[in-house]
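Researcher: Next entry in the queue.
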Amino acid sequence: MSLMVESAEFLDALLALPVMGRALLSPDGNLVAWSWSRKAPAADIYLAPTAGEAAPQRLTATPNDTYLISWVPDSTALIVAEDRGGDERLQLFRLELDGTMTALTEPSPPFFARGGEIDASGRYLVFAANYDPGSRAGIAASWVIRQDLATGKRIALARPAKPHAFRPSLDRSGRRILYSRRDRDPAGTQIWLVGIDGGDDREILDFGAAVKASASWFPDGNRILVLAETPSHKRLGVYDLAGGEVAWLIDDASRSIEAAHVPDRGGRIVVVETVEARSRAFLLDPVSGEETPVATTQGTLLPLGQLPDGAWLGRRYDAAHPDELVRFSPGGEAAPLASPFAGSALSEADLARPEDFCWRSTDGIEIQGWLYHPAQPAKGLVVQVHGGPTGHSEDAFSAFIQSCRAAGFAVLDPNYRGSTGFGLEFREAIRREFWGGIEQDDIRAGAEAVIVRGHAPPGKVAVTGTSYGGYSSWCAVTRWPADLLAAAAPICGMTDLVVDYYSTRPDLRPYSEEMLGGSPETVPTRYHERSPIHFVDRIAARLLIVQGMNDPNVTPENLTAVEAALEAAAIPYETLLFDDEGHGIRKPKNLRVLYARLIEFFGEAFAAR
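Model: Structure for this entry, 609 residues:
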């Protein structure tokens, strides 16, 4: 098809392509459920048979985003959640396969819930929340909560001492619950086990106070899959509950294991190895150690689980193809269950794939990112900084990046230090240097490299991003020279790290302590030095601040504080505020406004240079 690169129709078509959230295979393997946003005003839950004989069925149609949490053990229903305008105060529901929704918890509760599973008897709901059932009040630490579905009575099964974000996980029998704690150090996790009756609450795995570890059940309920970090790499093993020992299957500094899980069928572990921001999956036999690669001729293919007929279900994607669910054999072709292009005016041919782009940072370390080229010489460069920072950008679809490219901008999507997918030393560099350190040099050096190599004109650079990407945008606009940066548009980004620490969700606060080496009381100078709010008098570029007014993560208090500082310094700025959004802008109607405004804003800034 032929579309004008700056047309409103093209942006509308991009925003009509569905974005897939969580996808879960049913315990019996006959169904798959997932969330799709952008097909309707809010995210909804969809369902399809894994045999591929029927089209997807939309199960929900509410004004609020609906998030997929879990299946009930007998595969007859789902546990889903909704919040109100992105406030993250989740209400849990039981969703029947005919679309009937039954509330399990109250709307807008006085806590932040994580997870949500029903035990095999169907009697109890188990989740984590910063909530004391005795006082019925919100607290700082998240506890493991059991709710009787008949009476509504709640009790705390486990009481971690310090705040921590985790999802408790029931074994198949429903008798035991795996969960994690960070009571000893904000950088480390220990694995605990508690009974559904609240008894035998005990630590089972501890690899060091500041060592991160994760664990998940094998289907037999007798073994636990363990992923634990060492100073150089992650190692993968199996913990036997009866013997109390871990047998390490992969413990190799040359390997870059990023994730693993054990599906309900097939007897093999799904392992994801990520190298230079590219992920490949393989199946691992826990007894023999044999590895079977998962081959794909297109993009990235990540297995979800094996199906009753022996085929596998997976998730496939790349920059020119939004996420889709496919049936496949590990070494063969994949057949989609539902195409994201169904009913769309677009095809893969209308979407750009990126160049794998590398450059040297200020200290000589090589940094990788994805560079998108416009069809004609670039009017300017947009640096799109991913959030996290613990995460990484992939060769994956982004409506924003595609819309910027169509408007004639080059786009750099950098994987700065602190990103995953490049080994533990690379990821941990941001913790050694602390937030707002060397990773900001990585981002700036990437923009300069794009210009030096002739992919964008000098002086016409804009930077944007959400969450940590928003913080990085604030760092750029208060640090980069005027002859480099033309505009910045931080989205839900931290401005004053002290304000952010005290106003954010309590279960997220330890992350600030980990990444800044302590609290505002213990390292006040560092919090001051790394807070962009104290340097707004240096701003020379155009500034557009974007904020979701229901954001409980990077709260509007950050906006209030920086507006006062900007006005005191007589720095001009604009705001774009969304009253019905939280941490990030998600609703299609709001994205249409945001993307159009960003493209206009950047274009005006580039034209003025």
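Model: Residues 1-6 have pLDDT under 50 and may be disordered.
Researcher: Noted, moving on.
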